[in-house]
């Protein structure tokens, strides 16, 4: 599958927000976004007013980059969200939050979604006792996420859990740090996701 391989800091600067794509570095003074708070490129300092289409496009790109997914896959999630009961924009965010790589990140096993995706592909996690190595797997309420024996030996996961405990965990997730096991309790509400996005603009973008 195609994957973005360029500078992650460049993406944060392009969307004019810190998306914490590089993990712990984003919390330090080394963060590029803190030092250069303007879009990349030779015209980065010249901030023109965006059209309605431009605002909708930027919001769509922002959410894509936060969750680390490509265009066609994002569009598929949107189409699925339109067929679900409820508000399309909120349904879209809930689907993205259910991705296994995102849940791993939210539980604190990984420092960012990029690392979580790599860990999942290496087969370090089980869902309800069955190994799953598909980052896009949609976790269901009540699912138990456990770490394989190989994963328990990784110092990175132990360090990540310690950092996550300090930052706090989402209320729709339960985590037992000692047993290195978590539970996806329920779907999050829109206000609980705590992302600075206007999902209605994405709906408007795809509704043209």
List keywords for this structure.
208 residues; alpha+beta; Ribosomal Protein S4 Delta 41, Chain A, domain 1; Structural Genomics Hypothetical 15.5 Kd Protein In mrcA-pckA Intergenic Region, Chain A; 2 domains; 5-stranded antiparallel sheet; 46% helix
- The CATH superfamily of the largest domain is Ribosomal protein S4/S9, N-terminal domain
CATH class of the largest domain: Mainly Alpha
Average pLDDT level? 84
Oligomeric composition of the shown chains: single chain
Number of DSSP helical runs? 11
> In the residues, how many domains can be counted?
2
Question: Which percent bin holds the helix content?
Answer: 40-55%
The second-level CATH architecture of the largest domain is Orthogonal Bundle
Distance between the termini: 28 Å
Q: Strand order across the biggest sheet?
A: 2-1-3-5-4
String of helices and strands: HHHHHHHEEEHHEEHH
Q: What is the CATH topology of the largest domain?
A: Ribosomal Protein S4 Delta 41, Chain A, domain 1
Structural class: alpha+beta
- Please outline the major beta sheet: 5 strands, antiparallel
Task: From the alpha carbons, calculate the radius of gyration and give it in angstroms.
Answer: 18 Å
**Number of E-state strands:** 5
Give a quick summary of the entry.
This protein is of the alpha+beta class and 208 residues long.
Describe this structure in words.
This protein is α+β, with helices and mostly antiparallel strands and 208 residues long. It has 2 domains: 8-40 and 50-96 and 196-206, Ribosomal protein S4/S9, N-terminal domain (Ribosomal Protein S4 Delta 41, Chain A, domain 1, Orthogonal Bundle), CATH 1.10.1050; 99-184, RNA-binding S4 domain (Structural Genomics Hypothetical 15.5 Kd Protein In mrcA-pckA Intergenic Region, Chain A), CATH 3.10.290. It is 46% helix and 8% strand. The chain contains 11 helices and 5 strands, in the order H-H-H-H-H-H-H-E-E-E-H-H-E-E-H-H. The protein has helices spanning 8-15, 32-35, 52-67, 71-82, 88-97, 100-107, 113-121, 149-152, 155-167, 190-193, 199-206; strands at residues 125-127, 130-131, 144-147, 173-176, 181-184. It has a 5-stranded antiparallel β-sheet with strand order 2-1-3-5-4. A hairpin with a 4-residue loop joins strand 4 and strand 5 (181-184). Helix 6 packs across helix 7 (113-121). The longest helix has 16 residues, at 52-67.
């Amino acid at each position: 599958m195609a994957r973005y391989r360029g500078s992650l800091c460049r993406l944060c600067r392009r969307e004019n927000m810190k998306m914490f794509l590089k993990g712990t570095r984003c919390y330090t003074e080394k963060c590029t976004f803190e030092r250069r708070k303007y879009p990349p490129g030779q015209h980065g300092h010249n901030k023109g007013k965006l059209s309605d289409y431009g605002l909708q496009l930027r919001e769509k790109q922002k959410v894509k980059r936060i969750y680390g997914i490509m265009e066609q896959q994002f569009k598929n999630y949107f189409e699925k969200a339109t067929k679900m009961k409820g508000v399309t924009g909120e349904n879209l965010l809930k689907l993205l939050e259910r991705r296994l790589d995102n849940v791993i990140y939210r539980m604190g096993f990984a420092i960012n979604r990029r690392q979580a995706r790599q860990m999942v592909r290496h087969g370090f996690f089980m869902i309800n006792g069955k190994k799953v190595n598909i980052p896009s797997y949609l976790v269901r309420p009540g699912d138990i996420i456990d770490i394989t024996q190989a994963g328990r030996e990784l110092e990175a996961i132990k360090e990540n859990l310690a950092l996550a405990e300090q930052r706090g965990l989402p209320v729709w997730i339960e985590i037992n740090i000692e047993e290195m096991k978590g539970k996806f309790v329920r779907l999050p509400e829109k206000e609980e996701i705590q992302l600075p996005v206007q999902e209605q603009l994405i709906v408007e973008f795809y509704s043209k």
